[in-house]
User: Which sequence fits this backbone?
């Protein structure tokens, strides 16, 4: 098999979609995916009603939860007894005009009695989370009007 055929064979494509509907309160937005619904909003001091996570909190939530799930899957596959996994993601943003510099720090808390080599391996595996990989690679955004 030539290299271009191998590359196209390996390439994984997936499509996901969510819909956000803002039709009532100033910023309270219903986010729909299949039959599931969550709410995004802004805090009261920003004109919202504080009914849900802020949009950046949803972004951080996606990374934190994906990381935790990836670590659980890996630990389970290895048969490691990991009683809990806690992942916190901190974000700092600096903006100068249209330029935005964003830094995210992923903090992984694992049981202290877990062997050091397992703790280190899980920290390495955190980078393998699909959301982490998405955020580290080029993201191409396109805007278009619907009906």
Assistant:
């Amino acid at each position: 098999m030539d290299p271009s055929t191998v590359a196209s064979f390996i390439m994984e494509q997936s499509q996901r979609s969510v819909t956000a509907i803002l039709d009532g309160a100033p910023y309270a937005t219903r986010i729909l995916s299949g039959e599931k619904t969550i709410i995004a909003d802004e805090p009261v001091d920003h004109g919202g009603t504080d009914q849900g996570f802020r949009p950046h909190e949803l972004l951080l939530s996606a990374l934190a939860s994906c990381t935790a799930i990836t670590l659980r899957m890996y630990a389970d596959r290895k048969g490691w007894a990991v009683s809990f996994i806690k992942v916190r993601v901190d974000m700092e943003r600096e903006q100068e005009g249209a330029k935005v510099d964003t830094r995210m720090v992923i903090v992984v808390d694992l049981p202290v009695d877990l062997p050091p080599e397992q703790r280190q391996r899980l920290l390495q595996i955190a980078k393998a989370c699909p959301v982490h990989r998405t955020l580290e690679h080029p993201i191409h955004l396109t805007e278009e009007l619907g009906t």
User: Anything to note?
Assistant: The helical segments are 3-10, 55-78, 116-125, 130-136. The chain has two domains: 1-52, 54-138. The first strand starts at residue 19 and ends at 21.
